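Tokens in:
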């Protein structure tokens, strides 16, 4: 045998061997008698370790799901922005179309008013011609002429011969109840 090992064995006392052996026996007997408790402690430790590992796996999985939801939300937000922009463009087109329609309708209304004014003005001129030569007018003709002038003004008629000639002159005419018979008819 090796000399160093032999010296080491000589240096060890019997008491040390007995105490060490006794300690081993006590530890082994404790392990055997407390096997159930050790098993329970080990189970608790294993469950805790499994729980921590499962928790970490769940956190990782949930983190990935959160990222997916976040990406979905970003995509949805962008889609919403795109839809809103298209909606505003469509709305602006509709507003533009409505403005064009309003302009067209206004032009049509102005032309209609112009046409109506011209028709009424022609009727005023005709009624005026019937009475201006004789300076005599029936109540019915006078009332019709007044109504025509009001309609003419209602349709925007201003500053024409109606105001400068017809109105001042018609109030100087003689009003009669009936149209006189012409001498040729007798």
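Residues out:
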């Amino acid at each position: 045998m090796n000399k160093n090992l032999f010296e080491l064995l000589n240096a060890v006392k019997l008491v040390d061997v007995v105490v060490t052996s006794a300690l081993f026996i006590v530890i082994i007997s404790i392990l055997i008698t407390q096997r159930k408790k050790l098993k329970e402690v080990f189970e608790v430790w294993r469950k805790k370790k499994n729980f921590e590992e499962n928790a970490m796996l769940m956190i990782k999985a949930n983190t990935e799901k959160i990222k997916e939801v976040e990406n979905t939300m970003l995509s949805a937000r962008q889609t919403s922005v795109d839809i809103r922009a298209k909606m505003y463009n469509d709305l602006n087109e509709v507003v533009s179309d409505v403005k064009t329609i309003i302009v067209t309708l206004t032009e049509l209304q102005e032309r209609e008013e112009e046409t109506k004014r011209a028709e009424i003005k022609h009727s005023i001129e005709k009624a005026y011609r019937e009475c201006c030569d004789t300076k005599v007018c029936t109540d019915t003709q006078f009332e019709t002429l007044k109504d025509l002038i009001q309609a003419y003004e209602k349709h925007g008629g201003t500053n024409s011969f109606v105001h400068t000639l017809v109105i001042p002159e018609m109030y100087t005419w003689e009003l009669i109840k009936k149209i006189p018979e012409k001498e040729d008819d007798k």
